[in-house]
Automatic annotation (TrEMBL):
Region (Disordered): 1-21, 52-71
GO cellular component: a single term: cytoplasm
Amidohydrolase-related domain boundaries: 75-380
Record carries keyword Hydrolase: yes
Entries under Gene3D superfamilies matching the protein: Metal-dependent hydrolases
Keyword Lyase: yes
InterPro entries for the chain: ACMSD, Amidohydro-rel, Metal_Hydrolase, TAT_signal
Protein keywords: Hydrolase, Lyase
GO BP terms: secondary metabolic process
Lineage of the species this protein comes from: Bacteria, Bacillati, Actinomycetota, Actinomycetes, Frankiales
One MF annotation (Gene Ontology) recorded for this entry: carboxy-lyase activity
Domain of life: Bacteria
PANTHER family in alphabetical order: 2-AMINO-3-CARBOXYLMUCONATE-6-SEMIALDEHYDE DECARBOXYLASE, ISO-OROTATE DECARBOXYLASE (EUROFUNG)
Name of the protein described by the UniProt record: Amidohydrolase 2
Length: 388
């Protein structure tokens, strides 16, 4: 008997107001914002160029300055958003009900700013929902359109609130042509702070040769790449909700695949952010050496170098249980603050902030690195906008 909290990817998507789905399954199912993954057959034919649309124009709304109390506050690199234009696209295509729906579907800049102010966040880097394998009913043209609508909508939020928000633009890995178009448009025209990629699409993980053109372009641009997991491909009926375990395993699979495929060496100019403390990847150096004895793995030294090359956010939350291991495996200089709001809810955002603030392992200097200074180094354009 299938767990009611697990979406059956073999069934057509019924809309986000269908009965009794799990909250996180719903959130990551709302992938029409622009990183929706296609099944392999669709990916093979996905060559539609992104639908042209105008770049966001400056809004008449007054920008929201960072409150004085937050002038030296946190920078949240893991913060999701569904701006009004993207929300309307989902409604128009039957992915959300016109009224109501789950709480996250009614996102506003004001809701983010409120929890940011409460938890001492000076600025958040926004990204749309992660991709969903069960939105394969979307055509390649719709994938292109939704990606552009979502990126333009996020760009408008940043135009309205330049000192409070940055954003990672969507680039659907299963549609290489659209991904390359959106990378150029978002970085050159919208001035995105980086790009968000899904861990896998159609059963293929980052590191698969199919995705090399995307990584090559991001490497050429010295881009920051925020990665985000989803349900493990081919798995259904899990005994626990996917976000508790499978998201971490998905991140781990992608990171190990990239390591074994030589991605970290072949594309040295990409700065990869692995969310939720990197899943299990930071703990696998010795395991990967064991794998090398069996023909699949690398030396502990090579694994350690790859682990220390990536960046990791705190949105597990990592504190207090995981911080000793992360500090030992990664070092304080590669840890970033992340809330995962609104997926984590306001209560989750408060928990994450409080966990960092009260973690007995973190010195004031390390806490400052995680909360702010590391993100300022990684995202200099955002740092310049917010000042401090």
């Amino acid at each position: 008997m299938r767990d009611e909290n697990t979406l059956d990817e073999s069934q057509p998507f019924q809309g986000l107001d269908s009965p009794a789905p799990h909250r996180r399954s719903l959130l990551w199912g709302a992938a029409a914002l622009g990183a929706a993954a296609l099944a392999p057959s669709a990916a093979a034919t996905a060559s539609a160029a992104a639908t042209p649309s105008a770049a966001p124009s400056p809004s008449a709304a007054a920008p929201s300055p960072a409150p004085a109390a937050n002038a030296n506050g946190r920078i949240d690199v893991h913060h999701h958003a569904i701006p009004p234009a993207a929300h309307q696209w989902m409604v128009d295509h039957g992915l959300l009900p016109p009224v109501g729906g789950p709480p996250w579907a009614n996102w506003t800049a004001e809701s983010s700013l409120a929890i940011m102010d409460e938890t001492g966040v000076a600025a958040s880097v926004l990204s749309g929902p992660a991709p969903s394998e069960f939105l394969t009913s979307l055509t390649p043209a719709q994938i292109a359109e939704s990606t552009r609508v979502g990126n333009d909508a996020l760009g408008q939020v940043i135009s309205d609130h330049p000192t409070r928000f940055g954003f990672f633009a969507a680039a659907p890995v299963a549609n290489v042509d659209v991904a390359l178009t959106e990378i150029g448009y978002s970085l050159d025209t919208l001035h995105a702070d980086g790009v968000v990629l899904s861990m896998h699409a159609g059963g293929q993980y980052l590191g698969d040769p199919a995705f090399d053109p995307i990584l090559a372009e991001l490497d050429r641009r010295h881009a920051v790449v925020f990665t985000h997991p989803y349900n493990l491909p081919g798995c259904s009926g899990a005994p626990v909700p996917d976000f508790l375990v499978d998201f971490l395993a998905d991140t781990t699979r992608a990171a190990v695949k990239m390591l074994l495929a030589g991605v970290f060496d072949r594309y040295p100019n990409i700065s990869f952010i692995l969310p939720h403390g990197g899943g299990f990847f930071p703990l696998l150096a010795s395991r990967l050496q064991l794998g090398s004895y069996l023909g699949v793995g690398v030396s502990q030294a090579v694994a350690t170098r790859a682990i220390r090359r990536c960046w990791y956010d705190s949105a597990a939350p990592i504190s207090p249980g995981a911080t000793p291991s992360l500090l030992a495996a990664v070092g304080a200089e590669k840890l970033l603050f992340g809330s995962d709001f609104p997926a984590s809810t306001a209560d989750g955002a408060r928990l994450n902030a409080r966990a960092i603030d009260t973690d007995p392992v973190l010195s004031p200097g390390v806490r400052r690195q995680i909360n702010r200074e590391n993100a300022r180094r990684l995202l200099p354009a955002l740092a310049q906008r917010i000042g401090g």
